[in-house]
């Protein structure tokens, strides 16, 4: 980690949503320090670009994304977005809370994935610029995608020196499952490189969670 001066923050218009999706303006927020530059959209809190220095001192974009809004309004594998209310899969799109069963939209074989048909990745968030970042807010109304309770959500991105931090906060009016994360795809070789098949990763874990053929934990 490297801690340095606070980042500069700029905002600009990235595009406008299609009329059938409300037609709202999508803004892009650019956070920049001496060693990192990140671009974040008000659509889905998407990290559209993350430029950082390699060992050669050159800057390169290390996350996958699109240069235009059109790429994000079409089907894509959640590039850079905040996913929710529940990241990952809910088996058979069903869960029970306080003795009541709730049913969700099935969008991943027999399961519900990343919040359902129109999860947090596909909606516009309300931004507030901070001295070194941006905070996005939205209210997910009771019953949205089948989930109980009015859910207020804040997602805050801050950049300090070489460290980009994401903070998630949620407040609900009813008991509800909530599991938020960012869904960025990384290629540390940078934009323009072919693939990540020569990357190596080490995970120092004492155990792991086996899943079945539909990627649901077996227990």
Report on the structure:
The protein is mainly beta and about 220 residues long. Helices cover about 0% and strands about 35% of the residues. The strands form 5 sheets. It has a 5-stranded antiparallel sheet with strand order 1-2-3-4-5, with no helix packed on it. Strands 11-12-13-14 form a 4-stranded antiparallel sheet, with no helix packed on it. The model has no long low-confidence stretch (mean pLDDT about 95).
As a percent range, the share of helical residues equals under 10%
**Strand arrangement, largest sheet?**
1-2-3-4-5
Envelope shape: globular
Question: From the helix content, strand content and strand pairing, which structural class follows?
Answer: mainly beta
Kindly identify the CATH topology: Beta-galactosidase, Chain A, domain 5
What can be said about the biggest beta sheet? 5 strands, antiparallel
Strand residue content: 35-45%
Q: Distance between the terminal alpha carbons, to the nearest Å?
A: 36 Å
Number of helices: 1
Whole-angstrom Rg: 18 Å
Count of extended strands: 15
- What is the number of domains? 1
Order of secondary-structure elements: EEEEEHEEEEEEEEEE
Query: What is the CATH C-level name?
Result: Mainly Beta
CATH architecture: Distorted Sandwich
Low-confidence stretches: none
Q: Averaging pLDDT over every residue, what do you get?
A: 93
List key phrases describing it.
about 220 residues, mainly beta, five-stranded antiparallel β-sheet
Which secondary structure elements does this structure contain, and how are they paired or packed?
Blueprint: E1 8-16, E2 25-32, E3 36-41, E4 47-53, E5 59-61, H1 69-73, E6 82-83, E7 89-90, E8 94-97, E9 100-103, E10 112-113, E11 126-130, E12 133-140, E13 151-160, E14 163-172, E15 181-182
Antiparallel strand pairs: 1-2, 2-3, 3-4, 4-5, 6-15, 7-10, 8-9, 11-12, 12-13, 13-14
